[in-house]
Specification:
Elements lengths: L9 E6 L6 H13 L5 E7 H7 L3 H15 L6 E7 L13 E5 L10 H10 L5 E3 L8 E3 L1 H29 L5 E5 L9 H13 L4 E5 L16 H22 L6 E4 L9 H11 L3 E4 L3 H13 L1 H16 L1 H5 L16 H5 L3 H8 L10 H8 L2 H7 L1 H9 L1 H21 L3
Parallel strand pairs: 1-2, 1-10, 2-3, 3-4, 4-7, 7-8, 8-9, 9-10
Antiparallel strand pairs: 5-6
Helix pairs in contact: 1-3, 1-17, 4-5, 5-6, 6-7, 7-8, 8-17, 9-10, 9-13, 9-17, 10-15
Length: about 425
């Protein structure tokens, strides 16, 4: 391939905490291809996850490469350095060809006022009435609004530029795909804010191919979307329209698409997303993050015997360390502790009871979202168990793989992208 790397129209971020499920994840993409849709798998793992588990980015690359070779996947695939910053990116550079640049810490921090005024002066087109094809109405903002928005986001964009150039110097600008994460902010992005952000990213000469904005509602880990579906659909459509407009206005890559972070298991927003993608003929990058880890635990419980005992042990450990586990994820979980079963109760559960409580099936009366969210952030417990946990994954590979593949294909790819 010559020229810059390009991300295909549809891609799915597949987290694999313990680097054992790459084949099962890839199998879901193979099934999608047989259904007529190419979905590029992007194996992602953050610095925090590597640190907790004690792994290195090389292991993510090795697992992906091995799965692709063994299953004969002939389409593209990527390995994502997920949520990296300038102080964490170096360990990923030799092994990744996709970089999710996380600049959340810089959003809202003071930026040089001269830089703000210079930006606004360079972009007079942002002040006034802006008619964006595909939106219900024209947007009107004044110079003060442009400066206010730039004041909130310009430092973050500048930081993204520093990180991008650092990677480009090490790898070569044509050898990786860039995503910028802007979703960890206090309020949903308005169309005007997203347009200003994209203009600023273009000024930084970042060839961004996916951007993760902040949407209305809650995107909690591993459970369904909580929020106003009509408002989400409106925002999602507006964002697609703004991206299409910004590509033409600012010369951004034609492959630029929306990225939905913590997108796993947001079943209720999949129909609105599907309608919007069809309307705009747009692409999508969906991050499913820790869903695979939960399918591992489901598979262990389903296997019974030692597998079920290990699943119970992981839950007991998570319950004992609930405060420690939840703090890093406080903004993306809503756990009702009164609805968490006791260790004693879970120790008496059958395989079917454990699976019913954990598997995300909203129709099942025994599904417990709080139980699921605690286990979602509880992978640190399995990491501490170490070799015994990894051995169990290998021992029960068949049942775990079946769950991992079905979860990605049946609950995510099929409702989002394949014809019914």
């Amino acid at each position: 391939m010559t020229g810059p790397l390009k991300l295909e129209k549809y891609s799915i971020g597949v987290g694999d905490r313990f680097a054992h499920q790459a084949k099962a994840q890839l199998q879901a993409c193979i099934m999608a291809e047989k259904g007529g849709v190419i979905v590029v798998p992007v194996w992602n793992k953050s610095n925090r996850e590597h640190t907790i588990i004690g792994s290195e980015p090389a292991s993510t690359r090795a697992a992906a490469d091995a799965a692709v070779k063994e299953l004969g996947w002939e389409q593209l695939y990527r390995v994502d350095a997920d949520h990296i910053r300038l102080d964490t990116v170096n360990r990923f550079i030799p092994h990744s060809d996709f970089f999710t640049i996380d600049v959340a810490d810089s959003i809202g921090k003071p930026v040089d006022s001269v830089a703000v005024k210079t930006f606004a002066g360079r972009h007079p087109e942002l002040a006034g009435k802006i008619a964006i094809p595909g939106t219900e109405r024209a947007y009107e903002i004044n110079r003060a609004d442009v400066e206010r928005i730039a004041g909130k986001y310009l430092l973050a964009v500048q930081e993204a530029g520093k990180i991008y150039r650092h990677i480009a110097q090490a790898k070569g600008a044509d050898n990786f795909i860039t995503e910028v994460s802007m979703d960890e902010t206090d309020s949903p992005h308005t169309p005007a804010e997203l347009l200003v952000i994209l203009a600023a990213l273009a000024d930084e000469r970042i060839p961004i191919q996916t951007i993760a904005p902040k949407f209305t509602g809650r995107f909690n880990k591993g459970v369904d979307y909580a929020g106003d579906l009509k408002q989400f659909e409106k925002e999602f459509n507006e964002d697609l329209a703004v991206i299409a407009f910004a590509i033409k206005q600012y010369g951004l890559p034609a492959t630029l698409k929306l990225s939905v972070h913590s997108g796993s298991d947001k079943f209720s927003i999949y129909p609105p997303i599907r309608r919007a993608l069809k309307k705009f003929n747009a692409g999508l990058h969906l991050k499913t993050a820790g869903t695979t880890w939960l399918e591992e635990v489901i598979g262990l419980a389903e296997a019974g015997g030692d597998g079920l005992a290990l699943a119970r042990e992981i839950y007991a450990g998570a319950l004992d360390h609930i405060d420690e586990l939840c703090v890093p994820y406080a903004t993306v979980i809503d756990i009702d502790r009164k609805k968490l079963p006791t260790k004693e109760a879970v120790n008496g559960w059958t395989s079917a009871q454990f699976v019913a409580a954990l598997r995300h099936d909203p129709r099942c009366k025994d599904f417990n979202p709080s139980f699921r969210q605690l286990l979602h952030v509880g992978f640190k417990i399995a990491a501490k168990i170490g070799a015994r946990y990894l051995n169990a994954l290998e021992q029960h590979e068949d049942v775990i793989a079946r769950n991992v593949t079905a979860n990605l294909f049946e609950r995510h790819l099929k409702p989002l992208l394949l014809d019914p």
